[in-house]
Amino acid sequence: MKIGFLKLKRMVLAGVALLTSFSANAFPINFSAIGEKYPDVTIPFSLAKKGVVFTADLDAGVKTYTYTFYLDFSIKDDEQELQRIATLLGAKDPDDGATTNDSNGQFVYFRTGVDIPLRLTISRVDTTGEMLVYDKSFQRLWSLGGNNSSASKAIDFVKLDPAHYKVRLETLAAVSELADVPIDFRIGLPGKH
Questions:
Q1: Are 188 and 108 in contact (CB under 8 A)?
Q2: Domains, in order of start, for the chain
Q3: Which of 1, 33, 146, 181 is most buried (most C-beta within 10 Å)?
């Protein structure tokens, strides 16, 4: 069966018109998530002084997500500095004797590095004002790993509903050993930034 060019053109145009007349709800794909931008907040941070407060605004997308709040430590391209910071952050090789099994035989990683006393608060902001939704103080942070140019320590993982938030991170004590290290306070979604 041979179809002429004009007939084929009309069939294609009719098909396109039919497809575009469907609503987006007729498709099983969530098109609203395709263009969603994921927050990735980065603020220069310092552990040189006690009582310094760093604030950030966070617009938490269109879905509920668990956000990672962490510190990212920059490391100079110097083997001695790398070893010094890795030791301070507790980020050395896990086979160096920093692990053990507890009384139940469970694997325990006990090297945490120096204490980094911080207080993280998160307030939801809307037309009625601010409402505190999270307030916690920390001494020890979890290692998120690193490489030859940076290492990361998690402050916490916090589940937030879609809304506008004001995030506040306060140093509860100076950490003189890390005062000269360039640090960023970061907020992001695992695998999305």
A1: no
A2: 41-188 (2.60.120.790)
A3: 181
Q: d(Cα 161, Cα 186) in Å, to the nearest integer?
A: 19
d(CA 145, CA 129): 38
Phi, psi values for residue 161, rounded to 5°: -80, 160
Q: What is the pLDDT of residues 19-51, one digit of tens each?
A: 444 443 443 433 334 445 566 789 999 999 999
Q: 100: which DSSP letter?
A: E
User: Residue 6's beta-bridge partner residues?
Assistant: none
Sign of CA dihedral 122, 165, 65, 161: positive
d(CA 47, CA 118): 9
Q: What pTM was computed for the model?
A: 0.70
